[in-house]
Structure formats: C-alpha cells, structure tokens
Amino acid sequence: IFGYIDELCRALQKQDEDIFHAIELVPDTKYYLEALRTNVGWDDFLTKITSFCTKHKIKVVDMEGPYFPVGRPIWGLCNGPNNYHRFKIDMFVGVINRQISELNGRFDEVNTELLSCMAAFCPLHLFVAYDQEKLVTLATKFYTSDFTRDELARLPWQLNMYVTN
Prior knowledge:
Elements (H helix, E strand, L loop, with lengths): L1 H36 L4 H14 L27 H24 L2 H11 L4 H4 L4 H11 L6 H16 L1
Helix pairs in contact: 1-3, 1-4, 4-6, 6-7
C-alpha cells in the first residue's frame, strides 16, 4: 500500500508541476501571439512557406496577384482582395486572433491569478514556487468566506512558521 501512496504522491506532484509551468507560459504565449499578429511573424512565416514550396516543387502563389476563391466564378472579382491580404489578414491573423481569444477566455486575469496563487503552494523541488504574498492573496481574495478576520490577520505569521518548520 505504501508503494501505491508514494506513486499517487508523485502523480499529484507532477500534476502540480504541470499546472505551475502552464500558468507561467500563458502570459508569454499571449505576448508572442500578439507579436505575430502585429506583423513580426508574418514575413518569417511567409519565407519558410515559400522555401518549403520551392524545395518540394510546389507552385508558390503570387502574393500581389488577385485572390480568386475556389469554386466561384472569376469574373467580377478583379477589385477584390489580393492574395497577400487574403492569406495574411483573413487567414494568418484570423487564426492568431482565435487563439488569443481562446486563451483570454480560458485564462482571463482572475483565473490566471487564482491558478498562480494556487501554484505558490506547490511542494515540488522543496517548495521553489512558494510565495507567501500569493498565498495570502489566495486567502483574502478568493477564499474570504473560509477565514475569519483574525485568521486572515494571523495567516502571514502562520505561513512563516510553516516554512520554518
């Protein structure tokens, strides 16, 4: 039975570590997606795609040429968007916008702060993620109904004692 308990503890610690690392990555991911959206990533992306197509003898689309939707008649579309606009704005930026929207929906400021505060109590690597201020925030902001005023006032001292012991 002790082997099972030890295995369970390791699995829970691994899960805590995964949550901790995921929470650290969310703001960075949002930052890089924003950078891609604001033109930083498009040119590099287009260069890689063009290189790939050339290497594999795939026809490269003329980005300055007019865009013709598949399955629609060509006549009457001369004043429409060019391929550059279609692929960059409509597709590339559109996908990035959906990814940012999904991240913001799942990891808004409140959820990110809550998970970040919870990760501050992760026991991995001798509590390297321990952050007393985040734990106090967790209690005072998210779990106020679970603590009395006196308990909240004593919490920093008790957390110091916990670390000491």
